[in-house]
Amino acid sequence: DLDERLEGFVEAWARPGARSPVVLVTSDHGGFGTGHHADRPENRRIPWLLWGAPVPAGTSLDDLSTRDTHAVLRVLLE
C-alpha cells in the first residue's frame, strides 16, 4: 500500500534533531486520451500531494500545473 510505504520512508528520514521532512508526490505530466504531447491543459494538470510541517493544514491548490511546482515549493518552504 502506497500510504504505508510513504509512512515508512518519512519515519526513516525523520531522525532526532533533523529538519522536518517535506514529501512531494506527483507525476511528470498529465494526459489526454492516449497521448500527452499536445499543448492542452489536460496534459499539464497533474496529481500533486505535498505533506510536511511547513504546509498549512487544509491548503488546496486547484488548477496546479507542472509549470507551477517550483514556485509553490519556494513559497511554502522559505
Provide a quick synopsis of the model:
The protein is of the alpha+beta class and 78 residues long. 32% of the residues lie in helices and 13% in strands.
If you had to describe this structure to a student in words, what would you say it looks like?
With 78 residues, the chain is α+β, with helices and mostly antiparallel strands. Helix content is 32%, strand content 13%. It has three helices and two strands; from the N terminus they run H-E-H-E-H. It has helices at residues 2-13, 41-44, 69-77; strands at 22-26, 48-52. Strands 1-2 form a two-stranded antiparallel sheet. The longest helix is centred in the first third of the chain and has 12 residues, at 2-13. It is globular and about 45 Å long. The mean pLDDT is 76.
Ranges where pLDDT stays below 50 over 5 or more residues in a row are none
Using the alpha-carbon principal axes, give the shape. Answer: globular
What class do helices, strands and sheet pairing give? alpha+beta
Tally the helices. Answer: 3
The side-by-side strand order for the widest beta sheet comes to 1-2
Number of strands: 2
N-to-C series of helices and strands: HEHEH
On the 0-100 scale, what is the average pLDDT?
76
**What's the main sheet like?**
2 strands, antiparallel
User: What portion of the residues fall into strands of 2 or more residues?
Assistant: 5-15%
Cα(first) to Cα(last) distance is 32 Å
Rg calc: 15 Å
Fraction of helical residues: 25-40%
